[in-house]
Write a structure and sequence with these properties.
alpha+beta
């Protein structure tokens, strides 16, 4: 069974255990990976998007008014990013991040993130637990 793991640098991967997560990181980043050990790897509990919507609610907008054309995902540039920047400290900003080197897995994580970002989501309710993650 695979779980989701994160390293302090923002690297996220699915792996069988912490050692496997480190191995994947080292394969992708080589020598730079030597600075991390098992204690640096954090396991994440990941729930699905339906749970996210039930718990926090999605702020939906007219797709014609967003850079992405989506009703809830905001882009990482232009007026979408301006809207996110206005709310960075509100605890209602979530970042959609790529979770592996080929971009096949994506997660919704609390707060404004820059590394591996795909887009942003605004929630109706603020998050209280920064360790809560959701599948996207």
């Amino acid at each position: 069974m695979t779980e989701v793991y994160e390293l302090p640098c923002g690297f996220i991967t699915e792996a069988g255990d912490k050692n496997d997560a480190l191995r994947i990181y080292r394969e992708d980043y080589g020598r730079d990976a030597a600075r991390y050990t098992r204690k640096d790897v954090k396991q994440k509990l990941v729930q699905d998007i339906e749970e996210f919507e039930k718990k926090y609610g999605l702020v939906r907008r007219d797709p014609s008014t967003t850079e992405s054309g989506h009703d809830y995902m905001l882009e990482t540039f232009g007026r979408d990013l301006d809207l996110v920047a206005e709310r960075v400290d509100s605890k209602r900003v979530w970042t959609i991040v790529s979770g592996d080197s080929n971009g096949a897995a994506a997660y919704i994580v609390p707060g404004y993130r820059f590394v591996n970002r795909i887009g942003y989501i605004l929630s109706e309710k603020p998050f209280t637990d920064e360790s809560e993650w959701f599948w996207y």
